[in-house]
Structure formats: C-alpha cells, structure tokens
Design goal:
alpha/beta; Purple Acid Phosphatase, chain A, domain 2; six-stranded mixed beta sheet; five-stranded mixed beta sheet; globular
C-alpha cells in the first residue's frame, strides 16, 4: 500500500500550495494521505476546513493526527478542541481522526495520536556549564544586568516546564559572537491541558498502547503516525545551547518505548521537527515529515 505523508503545513503563513500537494499525492498514486499535525498555526475552523477540503482529493482515504498548534487558542478549553471540535471537523469533511482509534487499510493498520513531550529528550550534557536565566531573572538579563542563573546541567523538569528562559553564553561563546538568546515555547501561552506535560504524554502513550494491541489483532503490519517525535535518536545533535534545550519540547521517550513493544510495527512517521528525513532505528524506518516549502518539505511517498 502506498502512503503519502505530510506535516507542519502551518497554512497559510508558510505559503504552502495545497493544490500542489494534492496533485503530487495523486500523481504518486497514493492510496491514503496522512497529515501528521500542524496543518494550521492555531485552532481556526475556517482554515482547517479549507485544508481538509482541498487535500481530500489527494487520496481515497485521508487520515489526520493533530499537532500542538491545532490546540492553540486564546480562550476556551484545549480538551474540547482535542476531544470534540477536531474530530467533528474531520467527520464533516471526510477525514479519519487517528487519535480516536486505528484505521485499517487491507492488511495494514495505521495507529497513532498527537503524542506530546515530557522533557526526556533534553540534552543537558552537550553544554552543561552554560548558564540559563529563568523567571524574573530573564528581565534582568534583557536589561543587560547580571542575572542569577542555573547551569543547563542542573536544570530540572520544573524549570523546563516554564517554557521560557534566556541562555547566557560564557566568555568563550561571546568571543565567537554569541549573545544572550531567548527560548520561548509558546504552548505555554496558548495550550491549557489541565494536566502536566508529563501526564499528558503518558496518557498519549497509554492510548497508543491500547490502539496498537487492537491493531495487532486485526492487521499484519502497522504504521505508527504521530505529531511529536517518539525517538530521541532521530533528532539531530544539538549545535547550540538553544537546540539542546528545545529538544525538551520535541517528543517523549515513553512513546518510543510503547512503539517498540509491538513487533508488527514496520514504519513510524512523525512531524513537529520541520526537517524532512528518514532514519533507521533497528530496522524500523522513522520518517520525519514536513510539507513546508521553506524547509525543503513536500509530499513523502512510501510503500508500506
């Protein structure tokens, strides 16, 4: 079976051409299209309708996993968006909402969900002595004052949960032209889970395990589709302290552990990284999808 995979459209800001993606999937004779999240940059039903309506012609079956950006809203319940509004939009426009359960296509089952992050991919070892300003100390840093700081090597999950910090380069880094840099992960402003990131990631893993068991009883092969990364091994090495810290919000190792428990998994697809590529993880291809033209992305075609 041939799958067409796309992710992280961030329509319309990225200027992605929905018609072109549709034609590429059609020309590639895709039997199913998988959209692995961040179709838009915030929850906006008219824009989502436009994406779903245009892409629906790409393949006989269209399957959707939401991304963190579809949960963004300035008010209202994140749970209501995830559990009610997004599934309703999918049903209204002929899409399968993968978070609700496996989709069977012949002998192949597609299984997955949004996934989330639990800070387990944070790289505290590449730049352990680089200092970070948190909380009100960020204001001191912004004003050019010397803030109180913590070493990256000493950061704990409760610090990363703030999702905002200023990286303070040491003298050697300053000599290379590096200046204080702000890391701000805007899920902190626009997503209201009602639980911790770790608890939400664990719930995604629990549901994933149940759906994998269900699929294994009904299919010979399983393809897992998530938005966030389930394997830290497939993330590129940190080249800068900001990279090392941003890994905290890229995915969760618990998701990968659950995937590897099921022997019928033959491929994994995910988005979120905005960098296309395929990695081999013990014989399982892990495919990072993106369709953003400004990041070298397009439709990924894969026989599974």
């Amino acid at each position: 079976m041939r799958l067409a995979g796309i992710s992280d459209l961030h329509y319309p800001e990225s200027k992605v051409d929905l018609g072109l993606l549709t034609r590429l999937a059609q020309e590639g004779r895709a039997e199913a299209l998988v959209l692995a999240g961040d179709a838009v940059s915030q929850f906006h039903p008219p824009l989502l309708k436009e994406v779903f309506t245009t892409l629906r012609a790409a393949a006989p079956v269209c399957i959707y996993v939401p991304g963190n950006h579809e949960l963004w809203s300035r008010e209202g319940s994140t749970a209501a968006i995830y559990e009610r509004h997004l599934p309703e939009l999918c049903e209204a426009h002929g899409w399968q909402y993968l978070d609700a359960g496996p989709v069977l296509l012949g002998d192949v089952a597609l299984v997955g969900n949004l996934g989330w992050y639990d800070y387990s991919f944070t790289d505290r070892e590449m730049f352990p002595d680089v200092q970070v300003a948190l909380g009100d100390q960020m204001i001191a840093a912004a004003r050019g004052k010397k803030p109180q700081t913590l070493r990256i090597g000493d950061l704990k999950d409760e610090h990363l949960a703030q999702k905002a910090m200023v990286v303070m380069p040491d003298d050697a880094m300053r000599a290379l032209g590096l200046r204080p840099a702000l890391l701000r992960w805007n899920d902190r402003r626009f997503v209201r889970l009602g639980v911790s990131d770790q608890d939400f990631a664990a719930d995604c893993a629990r549901r994933l395990r149940g759906h994998l068991k269900d699929a294994a009883n009904r299919a010979g092969r399983i393809v897992v589709v998530m938005h966030t990364a389930p394997f830290g091994e497939t993330l590129p090495p940190a080249q800068h302290p900001l990279d090392a810290l941003a890994r905290a919000y890229q995915g969760a190792g618990i998701l990968g552990q659950v995937i590897l428990e099921e022997k019928k998994v033959t491929a994994v697809m995910h988005g979120h990284r905005h960098r296309p590529g395929t990695y081999d993880l013990g014989g399982i291809p892990v495919i990072n999808l993106t369709a953003r033209p400004d990041r070298g992305g397009t439709v990924t075609l894969r026989d599974v």
